[in-house]
Amino acid sequence: MNVFIIGLGLIGGSFALDIQQEFKNVTIYGIDSSEEHGDLALERGIIHQKATFSELSNADIVIIAIPVDVSQEVILKTLDNISDTCLVFDVGSTKELICDAVKNHPKRRNFLATHPIAGTEFSGPNAALTNLFRSKTNIICEVEKTAFKRLSNYKKKHWIFFQN
Fold first, then answer.
1. What CATH number has the domain bearing residue 12?
2. Which of 78, 82, 113, 160 could form a disulfide with 141 if both were Cys (CB 3.0 to 4.6 A apart)?
3. What is the pLDDT at residue 149?
4. For the sheet containing 49-50, what is the strand order?
5. What's the rounded Cα separation, in Å, for the pair 44 and 128?
6. Beta bridge mates, 138
7. Which domain holds residue 138?
């Protein structure tokens, strides 16, 4: 399984750590606007490889973990570059503008808007924590607009870290 994470701070890095803990046959690719964050995430074993948007066609799952004010453009760019079988989800705090931005995209069915209720006051790759999401609530928005096939492929196998 190829998981691409865009944004390698507290939330994205914590997802990467938990995914690696649960799934041994996963490769985590990281994309971050900060070269320093990418290097640090690689050094700390948060990701296995740094990547670029042009490599997103190889992704099975893309997690977008960047601030909401810049995520709309990144989500659209991501959807433009993924395969038809990829699931993309963002983990930003607000959804109205994001859901509005993707509503007419040809790959809208590949997108899931989520908001895990977890975090700390720290940021960056050094803030990443294992089990940050364990026993936490994850709000899922507009699930009916995401292709059921995408969700059923991942729901039981890949969302285990949200279980109580």
1. 3.40.50.720
2. 113
3. 57
4. 49-50, 27-31, 2-6, 61-64, 87-90, 111-116, 138-141
5. 10
6. 116
7. 2-162
* Token pair belonging to 48: 């296995």
- With beta carbons less than 8 A apart as the criterion, state whether 72 and 64 touch: no
Q: How far apart are CA 116 and CA 144, in angstroms?
A: 18
Give whole-number Cα distances, 101 to 4, 28, 52, in Å. 21, 27, 22
Cα separation, 153 vs 29, whole angstroms: 20
What gap in Å lies between CA 125 and CA 129, rounded to an integer? 9
pLDDT tens-digit profile of 55-69? 999 999 999 999 888
Q: Which helix (H) or strand (E) holds 20?
A: helix 10-22
Q: How many residues does the chain have?
A: 164
Low-confidence residues in the chain, pLDDT < 70: 139, 141-145, 148-164
- Regarding pTM above 0.90, the answer is no
